From TrEMBL:
Keyword 4Fe-4S included in the entry's annotation: no
Superkingdom of source: Bacteria
Signal peptide: none
Family of this protein: Belongs to the aldehyde dehydrogenase family.
Active site per database record: E247
Family annotation (SUPFAM superfamilies): ALDH-like
Name of the protein this chain belongs to: Aldehyde dehydrogenase family protein
Residue ranges annotated for the Aldehyde dehydrogenase domain, each copy included: 21-469
Matches recorded under InterPro entries: Ald_DH/histidinol_DH (IPR016161), Ald_DH_C (IPR016163), Ald_DH_CS_GLU (IPR029510), Ald_DH_N (IPR016162), Aldehyde_DH_dom (IPR015590)
Keyword Membrane: no
C-alpha cells in the first residue's frame, strides 16, 4: 500500500499471491467530500484471463482438500479480526457509511468467513433400484466469478466468496468500481492463507465484469447488483449455459393498517426506508398507509425526516450519510424533479444540500400516481413515496403490481391478519411490524426481477455445489 500523498492510498489488485499494478488506474472518491481518496488498477482482458486461468489451475487441489479449506477460512477470519478499524475506516471513506455501520460490515465479513468454515456439506442418500445403486454427491463447480455492488460492498461480495471457497470452488471476485479499495485491502490481508490462484480480487467496471463472466473457464457466476446488469450477465451466461445466482433490485412495499399506533411505528418506518440513505436493496421503497392514519403518518414521517442530521463518517452525530455515487445522487434529483412536475407534494427534503459531497435529505413525497417513476421503479435513495389505501384487496394488488419481489412488510396490531395479508404478497423477505432487520446467516431469495437463486444460509451454500451421481464404488467423502 502506498500513501501518496497523505491520506490517499493506492492498492494494486490481487491475483492469487501476486499483485498487478500496471495499466489504467481506477480513481476512488469520498462521497462525503467529493475528494479523490486513492486508486487501484483496472483489470483488463489479459489480467482477467490470467486470474481465471490461475483459478482453474488451482481448483483440483483446492477441491480435494476440505481440511485446508476450513483452516484457510478460519485463518482469514482471524487475520481480519486484527484489522477491523483500518478496514472500517477505508470502507467508510469510499462508501460514505458511518463508521459504526462500516465496523458492522467488517465484522460481518469475519462472521461470513468463520461461518463458512463451520458449514458442512450434506451427505446424500443412495438411491437403489434392484441390484443397481446410485450415490449422489455434492461437488464444487470450478471457478466462480463473484461480482458485487457498491451499497454494502463487503458483506454482499464476501457472502459469495466465503461460501464458494468453502464448497471447494476457486474464486475471482470483482467489487464495484465505486468502492473497490476495502475489498482489495482484504484481499491483500488474507491472500497468504489460500494456495496461490485460489482467490483473486480484481477491480474495474462493466467491461471487466463482462470479460470475467464471459471467460470460458468460469463455471458459475454469482452476481449482486441492478436488474439491467443482471439481465446482461444472464444473457452472457445463457450463451455458455453457465449457472447464475443473481440478487437484483427491489421495490419493497410496506402496508400499514388502521389498527397500529402511529407513534409506535414512525421511527421504525423511517429507518426501514432511510437506513444507509435508502441505499439498501430491501428498504421500504413504497409506503401504503390506511386512509384513516394517512395524514398522521405522513406528518410524523416528515417531522422525523426534517430533524435528521446528515453528515459524513467523520461526524459521529450524523444519522444519515451521503449517496455513495454521483450518478445515484443525480438520479434521485431527477426523480424528485419529475415527481414535482407531476404535481407531487414534498413534505420534507426535496433539495440536495449545497456541496461538497452527495448529500440528499430524507424526502417524504405524496400525491403521486401508482405509475409515476418514483413509485413504479426502484429509487435506491432517500426519497419515500407514501400512498393511501382503504381496501385490503386493493392494496395487495397494488403492492404486487411490480416486476420486483424482494421484500415486503405488513404492519398491524393483529399479527394474524398481517401474516395472512403478507402471505399474499410476492416477496422473498417478509416482515410483520418491521422492515429491514435481517439475521446474519439466514437465506435470501427474490421473486420476479429481484433475482434467481438463494444467497446465505445452508441453501445459499449449497448453490455453490453441483451434484454428481456415482454408479460404482460408494465414495467415502463428500465435497
Ligand atoms: P450495477 O448493476 O450497476 O453494478 C453491480 C456490479 O456489476 C458492479 O461491480 C459493476 O461493475 C458490475 N457490472 C456492471 N456491468 C456489468 C456487466 N455488463 N457484466 C458484468 N458485470 C457488470 O449495480 P449497483 O449500482 O452497483 O448496485 C445497486 C443495485 O444493486 C440496486 O438495484 C440494488 O437493489 C441492487 N442490490 C441488490 C441486492 C440484493 O441482495 N438483491 C443487494 C444490494 C444491491
Amino acid at each position: 500500500m502506498n500513501a501518496t500523498p497523505e491520506n490517499s492510498i493506492h492498492l494494486p489488485i490481487i491475483i492469487g499471491h501476486e499483485e498487478r499494478d500496471e495499466g489504467t488506474f481506477l480513481p476512488v472518491y469520498d462521497p462525503a467530500t467529493g475528494q479523490n481518496i486513492g486508486s487501484t488498477v483496472v483489470a483488463d482482458a489479459a489480467i482477467v484471463d490470467w486470474a481465471v486461468t490461475r483459478a482453474a489451475q488451482a481448483f483440483p487441489a483446492w477441491a480435494a482438500s476440505e481440511g485446508q479449506r476450513v483452516q484457510a477460512l478460519q485463518a482469514a477470519a482471524a487475520t481480519l479480526g486484527g484489522h477491523v478499524e483500518e478496514l472500517a475506516a477505508l470502507l467508510a471513506r469510499e462508501t460514505g457509511h458511518s463508521l459504526a455501520f462500516a465496523r458492522i460490515e467488517v465484522q460481518a465479513v469475519i462472521g461470513l468467513l468463520g461461518g463458512a468454515a463451520a458449514r458442512s456439506t450434506p451427505v446424500l442418500e443412495p438411491v437403489r433400484y434392484g441390484a443397481l445403486q446410485a450415490q449422489p454427491v455434492y461437488v464444487p463447480y470450478g471457478v466462480v466469478a463473484a461480482i458485487g455492488p457498491w451499497n454494502v460492498p463487503l458483506i454482499l461480495l464476501f457472502q459469495k466468496i466465503a461460501d464458494a471457497l468453502r464448497a471447494g470452488n476457486t474464486v475471482v471476485a470483482k467489487p464495484s468500481e465505486y468502492t473497490p479499495l476495502s475489498t482489495v485491502l482484504i484481499g491483500r490481508l488474507i491472500r497468504g492463507h489460500f494456495p496461490d490462484g485460489v482467490l483473486s480480487i480484481l477491480a474495474g467496471g462493466a467491461q471487466t465484469g463482462e470479460q470475467l463472466v464471459a471467460h470460458p473457464l468460469v463455471s458459475k457466476i454469482s452476481f449482486t447488483g441492478s436488474v439491467a446488469t443482471g439481465q446482461r450477465i444472464l444473457g452472457s451466461a445463457a450463451a455458455r449455459v453457465v449457472p447464475v445466482t443473481a440478487e437484483l433490485g427491489g421495490n419493497d412495499p410496506a402496508i400499514v393498517f388502521e389498527d397500529v399506533n402511529p407513534q409506535d411505528v414512525i421511527e421504525r418506518l423511517f429507518w426501514g426506508s432511510f437506513f444507509n440513505s435508502g441505499q439498501i436493496c430491501f428498504a421500504i421503497k413504497r409506503l401504503y398507509v390506511h386512509d384513516s392514519l394517512y395524514d398522521t403518518v405522513v406528518a410524523g414521517l416528515a417531522e422525523r425526516a426534517q430533524r435528521t442530521r446528515l453528515g459524513g463518517p467523520a461526524d459521529p452525530t450524523a444519522e444519515l450519510g451521503p449517496l455513495t455515487t454521483k450518478a445515484q445522487f443525480l438520479h434521485i434529483q431527477t426523480l424528485v424533479s419529475e415527481a414535482r412536475a407531476q404535481g407531487a407534494i414534498i413534505h420534507s427534503g426535496g433539495e440536495a444540500l449545497a456541496g461538497p459531497g452527495f448529500f440528499y435529505p430524507p424526502t417524504i413525497v405524496t400525491n403521486l400516481a401508482e405509475d409515476s417513476r418514483l413509485v413504479a421503479e426502484e429509487q435506491f435513495g432517500p426519497v419515500l413515496p407514501v400512498l393511501r389505501f382503504a381496501d385490503t384487496e386493493d392494496v395487495i394488488q397494488r403492492a404486487n403490481n411490480t416486476r420486483y419481489g424482494l421484500g415486503a412488510s405488513v404492519w398491524s396490531a393483529d399479527t394474524a391478519r398481517a401474516a395472512a395479508v403478507g402471505a399474499q404478497l410476492r416477496s422473498g423477505l417478509l416482515w410483520v411490524n418491521g422492515h429491514g432487520n435481517v439475521v446474519p446467516g439466514a437465506p435470501k431469495a427474490g421473486f420476479g426481477a429481484s433475482g434467481l437463486g438463494v444467497e446465505g444460509g445452508q441453501s445459499g451454500y449449497e448453490s455453490y455445489l453441483n451434484i454428481r451421481t456415482l454408479y460404482g464404488p460408494v465414495p467415502e467423502t463428500n465435497a
